[in-house]
Amino acid sequence: MAQVGIFVGTMYGNSLLVAEEAEPLLTDEGHQVKIFEDPGLDDWQRYADHVVLIVTSTTGQGELPDSIAPLYREMKAKLGHQPALRYGLIALGDSSYDDFCGGGRKFDALLQEHGATRVGDVLMIDASEHPEPEEIASPWVETWARQLG
pLDDT (tens digit, 9 = 90+) per residue, 30-57? Predict the structure, then answer.
């Protein structure tokens, strides 16, 4: 099965909670999983030929949280094509803001630009409708885990 790195961008802990709920679901499907709360470029590059799951919230005007923004900036500045990378993305946001799930959308756009392969659709969770994001994320993760093969 796959080696999966879960890369978390969180401000108030909701993204980390989603990641921690996802870990056993992925493990149950036979995947090897590691969560990165403050991921760096070295952590990311260990998964260049594997699978990553990005779980990130959005701050301010569609920005990434401080825990994952440095990774995004380094990837943008230092990494190019990542064709062997497969990824999934769970974006948390609030639709009452103009740039709903903007942080997750930015990460997805960068990975698409780098030629990575997205497995499944991006899951966007609206905090104004779903105050407990793990309830929405868990069924998505179960389906996503099976798509990894």
Answer: 999 999 999 999 999 999 999 999 999 9
What token pair was written down for 131? 């105050």
Among 68, 74, 16, CA closest to 45: 74
Residue 141 CB coordination number (10 Å):
27
pTM above 0.70, yes or no: yes
Instruction: Give the contacts of 43 (CB within 8 A, at least 6 positions apart).
Output: 5, 7, 36, 71
CA distance 149 to 146: 6
Tell me the backbone φ, ψ of residue 36, rounded to 5 degrees: -120, 110
Residue closest to 44 by CA, chosen among 34, 58, 31: 34
What is the pLDDT, as a whole number, of residue 61? 85
Q: From residue 148, how far is each of 2, 51, 72, 120, 130 by CA, in Å? A: 7, 8, 24, 10, 26
CA dist 89 and 105 (Å) reads: 9
The continuous run of DSSP H or E covering 143 comes out as: helix 133-147
**Hey, how many other C-beta atoms are within 10 angstroms of the C-beta on 96?**
9
